[in-house]
Amino acid sequence: MSNILSGKKGIISGALNSESIAWKVAERCVAEGAQIVLTNAPVAMRMGEINALAEKCNAPVFGADATSMEDLETLFTKSMDHFGGKMDFVLHSIGMSVNVRKGKPYTDLNHEWMQKTFDVSAMSFHKMMQTIWKLDAINDWGSILALSYIAAQRVFPDYSEMAESKALLESFARSFGYHLGTAKHVRVNTLSQSPTMTTAGQGVKGFHDFFNYADKMSPLGNAPAEDCANYCVALFSDYTRYVTMQNLYHDGGFSTMGMNPALIQNP
Ligand code: NAI
């Protein structure tokens, strides 16, 4: 450990269980010297696993449905009270698709559910940033990050409406990145992660086959969640102060590949 987050304070959303990417990010941030607040939807908190992480990280858990402006305002206000001031970093690690959960084919989606999906998976990011903006909750040179997936750029049929959610999420990072950058030197990025064996990941049809396909296509193999956490730490640290409004691939090279002979020889 090099303590690169020493003195920094941040909010980590989305740690559901020990497989969650956010769980690993929380552990790594604390190991690097940060003080954190954990948050998740009240329904996820009732499952109780987050309490073990909270204890390990010596962090409070403040429940918030990320689609509710009221909940978000309470979350950021309570967090500032806890920290005794503003924060330095925020992780958005939230995704859920109603149509994927219910197994609806892309050509027969329920559009009310689609709106819910967009609200939870993408608009919640805008809502978080708007709350941060209004409450002036982040320090100058702070860092805001959301987790994305390459289905925002390319077609992955089973990813369904989550593809559009991620496209929207990445666009919010660019647009709010302009405002937060100009006003406060705060950077906003998305990190596009390899398929990862988590609750949300495995909810996608055919995930295991796809995981193996991506692993073979990528020269470095799929990027593990622990390494994703390391990249998040780097993006929260002062070593990346001028990186903003980017979608950053953390995928073992998958996004640049066209064809990998390893897949043809051994599909
Ligand atoms: P996960 O299932 O552990 O985390 C998803 C989190 O979203 C859960 O903690 C859940 O409680 C939270 N959530 C859902 N609705 C919410 C709401 N209304 N308010 C607040 N929180 C809510 O799965 P994972 O994979 O760690 O997902 C984290 C992020 O990483 C998501 O944005 C996901 O799309 C993204 N991602 C995941 C990949 C994968 O293959 N697992 C690949 C690329 C990106």
How many domain units? 1
Rg = 18 Å
- H and E order: EHEHHHEHHEHEHHHEH
Distance between the termini: 39 Å
Question: What's the name of the CATH homologous superfamily?
Answer: NAD(P)-binding Rossmann-like Domain
Gist?
The chain has helices spanning 21-31, 42-46, 50-57, 69-83, 98-101, 111-135, 162-184, 199-202, 207-217, 225-236, 261-265, and strands at residues 9-13, 35-39, 87-92, 138-148, 187-193, 247-250. It has 267 residues and is α/β, with parallel strands linked by helices. The protein has a single domain, classed as NAD(P)-binding Rossmann-like Domain (Rossmann fold).
Report on the structure:
It is a single chain. This protein has 267 residues and is of the alpha/beta class. The chain has a single domain (9-265), classed as NAD(P)-binding Rossmann-like Domain (Rossmann fold, 3-Layer(aba) Sandwich). The chain has helices spanning 21-31, 42-46, 50-57, 69-83, 98-101, 111-135, 162-184, 199-202, 207-217, 225-236, 261-265; strands spanning 9-13, 35-39, 87-92, 138-148, 187-193, 247-250. It has a 6-stranded parallel sheet, sandwiched between helices. Strand 1 (9-13), helix 1 and strand 2 form a beta-alpha-beta unit. The chain is globular. The relative contact order is 0.14. The structure holds 1,4-dihydronicotinamide adenine dinucleotide (NAI). The site of 1,4-dihydronicotinamide adenine dinucleotide has 27 residues, from helix 1, strand 4 and helix 8.
